[in-house]
Amino acid sequence: xxxxxxxxxxxxxxxxxxxxxxxxxxxxxxxxxxxxxxxxxxxxxxxxxxxxxxxxxxxxxxxxxxxxxxxxxxxxxxxxxxxxxxxxxxxxxxxxxxxxxxxxxxxxxxxxxxxxxxxxxxxxxxxxxxxxxxxxxxxxxxxxxxxxxxxxxxxxxxxxxxxxxxxxxxxxxxxxxxxxxxxxxxxxxxxxxxxxxxxxxxxxxxxx
Length: 208
Description:
By secondary structure, this protein is mainly α. It has helices at 2-20, 89-98, 117-130, 132-135, 144-147, 167-176, 190-204.
């Protein structure tokens, strides 16, 4: 057993010394676990050899036929086109006057607002996940972060300031953020933002 241990140690030392002393700069040195450095998945920007899977030999392929281009409508959850209004005062005002919810139709939910029961319920769930800590369950701006002094001056949705706020401006605020409120574009898809607004409309209709 000791003999085999010595032979194994000798082979390891010879391998180690030979790999460290390799001086031919035109050839690649011996590597341990090369797959940890050289990516196994296809890399479109660092292709070293022809891809045998695709007929053109390229890792980077054209989009499949029927793919929706970026310039198509982005208000659906699956779209990725940029928001059409800039993050400035003019963009905020333009969104308020030009932008309306795609959820608005002739169907009214039990609460009487211009969105369906389904979207209202989804908006309520999302509001309670992302908004309630500041705006409060009743939309009065008295969430836990406000009552504990972390944030202040969160207006009530039924206040004179926000009661008649256009839904386009609400969407703009959810997308970019406004004042102490940050952007929720990374947490809420475009359609989810409209669902939240659908639920917020309940608070806007309440008396001050």
